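Retry 2 of 3 after timeout on previous attempt. Resubmitting structure tokens to design endpoint.
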């Protein structure tokens, strides 16, 4: 296991480098960079026109012919670091990352590290609560479906699960807003922010209630697509254990079905689900939270990354990419190690 873990850790460096290189190359070809947007604002064209202006650009001379002083253009390029060739900019970025410096945002005037730390609590709130509720719903539902396999309950619950799995989180989020967020006659839940504007004036109990009241819709949007896979996995795991010989032996000893289920079957069937908890968490944090944060105006890492991508705030874009990728690789490794902890029969040394 130690050799496997060391090998995975050593592979993280090349993996991060390849991802950064690919995305850096894509960014170079994307129109509407920060220089073009600054020029568009100076010309009164707005940020939307920056993409079109970028496609017309061949060099500084082309911009100068549209009425801008070449010296001003050079100052703008120097401000954003685009006065250097791409390879030099790439090397400087990688060198800063090696020294744990993610750079400074082009438009927010703050270090990328500070921005991400300030947004982290919102994303963690969504991810942790969504993962917890997903497990609390999926495990009992999966066990119930396995015990009642082939019944009407199994059939209609499978239909609901299929609908939830097929519906994207952002689409379900919009549906929740329409139904319960004031889009119709029902205005039950807030649809903006994680707390109310007067949160600081509330008493401690009211703060807790206000916090969870704001979490209802965004967490529900994240849970609806995530619990389908976990429910079916729980059902299949329980069905697989029920058919094993030790269950037949336990029944032959006179144990009730409830004792067989919760003393023997449940413990063995849950090993796979417990080991998969890190992977479930990363899917919620980095898979579905981005659009949900944007839709519900939650100031988290997903919204920060989205706004940085729209504004071409490259330090934030690449800093978020680096942190997300590194966190994903580490959590994936933790998930693999959890499999080994819950089931010592797994031997990673046999993997090539």
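Retry 2 succeeded. Sequence:
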């Amino acid at each position: 296991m130690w050799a496997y873990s060391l090998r995975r850790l050593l592979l993280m460096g090349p993996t991060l480098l390849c991802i950064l290189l690919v995305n850096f190359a894509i960014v170079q070809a994307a129109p509407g960079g920060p220089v073009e947007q600054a020029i568009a604002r100076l010309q009164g064209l707005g940020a939307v026109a920056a993409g079109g202006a970028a496609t017309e650009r061949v060099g500084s001379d082309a911009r100068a012919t549209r009425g801008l002083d070449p010296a001003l253009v050079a100052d703008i390029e120097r401000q954003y670091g685009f006065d250097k060739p791409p390879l030099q900019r790439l090397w400087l970025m990688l060198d800063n990352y090696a020294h744990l410096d993610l750079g400074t945002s082009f438009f927010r005037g703050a270090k990328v590290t500070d921005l991400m730390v300030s947004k982290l609590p919102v994303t963690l709130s969504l991810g942790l609560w969504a993962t917890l509720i997903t497990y609390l719903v999926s495990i009992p539902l999966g066990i119930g479906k396995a015990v009642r396999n082939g019944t009407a309950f199994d059939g209609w619950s499978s239909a609901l699960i299929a609908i939830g799995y097929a519906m994207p989180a952002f689409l379900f989020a919009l549906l929740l807003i329409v139904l319960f967020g004031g889009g119709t006659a029902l205005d039950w839940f807030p649809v903006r922010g994680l707390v109310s504007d007067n949160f600081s004036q509330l008493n401690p109990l009211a703060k807790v209630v206000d916090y969870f009241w704001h979490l209802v819709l965004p967490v529900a949007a994240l849970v609806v697509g995530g619990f389908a896979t976990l429910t079916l996995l729980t059902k299949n795991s329980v069905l697989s254990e029920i058919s094993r010989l030790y269950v037949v032996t336990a029944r032959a000893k006179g144990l009730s079905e409830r004792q067989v289920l919760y003393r023997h079957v449940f413990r063995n069937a849950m090993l796979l689900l417990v080991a998969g908890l890190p992977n479930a968490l990363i899917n919620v944090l980095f898979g579905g939270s981005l659009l949900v944060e944007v839709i519900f105006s939650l100031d988290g890492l997903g919204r920060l990354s989205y706004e940085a991508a729209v504004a071409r705030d490259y330090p934030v874009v690449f800093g978020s990419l680096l942190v997300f990728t590194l966190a994903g690789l580490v959590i994936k490794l933790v998930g693999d190690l959890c499999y080994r902890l819950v089931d010592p029969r797994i031997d990673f040394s046999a993997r090539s």
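Attempt log closed. Residues 46-65 have pLDDT under 50 and may be disordered.
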